[in-house]
Hints:
This protein is an alpha/beta fold. Helix content is 29%, strand content 26%.
Amino acid sequence: MLTALGGSFGDRPDALRVAGRPGSYEDLLGAARAVAADIAGAPAVAVNATASLETVAAVVGGLLAGVPVVPVPPDAGPAEREHILRDSGAAEITVDWSRRSGAAPSRTSVLPSSGPGGDPDPALILYTSGTTGPPKGVVLTAAAIAADLDALAGAWQWTAEDTLVHGLPLFHVHGLVLGVLGALRTGSRLVHTGRPTPEAYAAAGGSLYFGVPTVWSRIAAQPGEAAALRSARLLVSGSAPLPTPVSQTVEGLTGHRPVERYGMTETLITVSGRAGTVPRPGTVGTPLPGIRTRIVAEAGAGADAEIGELQLTGPTLFAGYLNNPGATAASYTADGWFRTGDIAAIDPEDGVHRIVGRASVDLIKSGGYRIGAGEVENALLDHPRVREAAVVGVPDADLGQRIVAFVVAEGVTGNELTDFVAARLAVHKRPREVRFLAELPRNAMGKPQKKLLLGGETG
Ligand code: MLC
Ligand code: AMP
């Protein structure tokens, strides 16, 4: 990976800029080597993954030392933080950006050349929500990351001549793997804007921009800032569906129709539009080289047989959920394909993929964040006044989906419950709205009927 650091921007003092602070690639290597020397031999390390140069140095230091890094969301409340640290067994480290170590890295290449026979070592453990229970640790190898970044560089004609701009969190695939390691592997300049605001994107002067749909929707609402992106080469959207009207407005204001790509923490990015082609809004392109996809319709789907669960295989897949072989096994079919849980369709003419929705109402995407309904329900049930709770994602123009909690509770306000969840879990997992019911609608099995709760919203 670091071979590209000597690229076009290798000697620039601001080859990296994170939340306003500049750094050179030499600075990064120096700080990362000091981290690597400190952590050599550790089973795993955790870093409080603020949008900062220190987080970048921690991740590169982990790669240098061959020690997996667990980026912890900085706003994770005590319950979530303790779970992540306990489950991963990672010791938390702090990074001094100005510290230098003369020690040579224990490896000469940080990410291996992609392809068969790559490095099986875990590089990152990213925590992500399932439908129930606490987040699971997704183990990603350096080989999978390298394969994904090389495939994306090809798809987007991403080179050391680019300046990548984004302001996404550094504890998920989008912001960290694509948004940081992608820049380091291609040798492009990186401007991380701290927060992904239209103003910051406009001021950054990039050639390549990444955003979740909420970011593009906010840019679409600010024509002055959007116009500054005319000089860009490529705008990329992902992590959630980009609404067609947002795509059209962004194209009208910037001259670029955002290219969509599809991925998951467990698979990295597997399907993408290509630079130099005009994407159809509402579609996410074709599989990246090395990825195979198929649609598996539910038995009895009849006329809708071309729509079904998207399943895939390829070199970018995760090495499993940490400490959870049962969940890992359950995520594969008997013939070895990964079950995404997303409902999709593939155009028989050109192979272009369309994501139709998710199989489970219990996985919510809000602002591009993946949130398990069960985790929020458990947090609500920890409140002494809450007797029952059911959490759903309802359509939202800004966030894609917004979290709404239906509760049976007395003597507590909605705002108190929202703050209660925000204090225990990451802030974006808080309900945006709390509705009080005398009882939850349940089926004969006693299971809350979420479709009924949603019915009032969508119908
Ligand atoms: C509000 N805040 C509260 C609060 N109410 N804090 C505590 N308690 C409460 N009750 C404060 C927070 O402290 C924070 O403050 C601010 O509100 C955050 O508000 P928000 O409404 O949650 O943020 P918002 O601006 O709406 O965020 C939109 C967004 C964000 C787009 C910036 O959703 C985002 O960054 N999304 C990216 C998600 C992402 O990267 N997903 C990729 C997953 S990987 P303060 O001080 O901080 O402002 C993946 C694979 C793939 O999916 O395909 O890419
Ligand atoms: P995460 O694990 O946070 O990366 O979330 C992965 C999920 O995000 C996928 O299973 C999809 O539901 C959703 N997703 C990612 N990219 C897209 C996209 N371009 N269009 C629609 N959904 C997407």
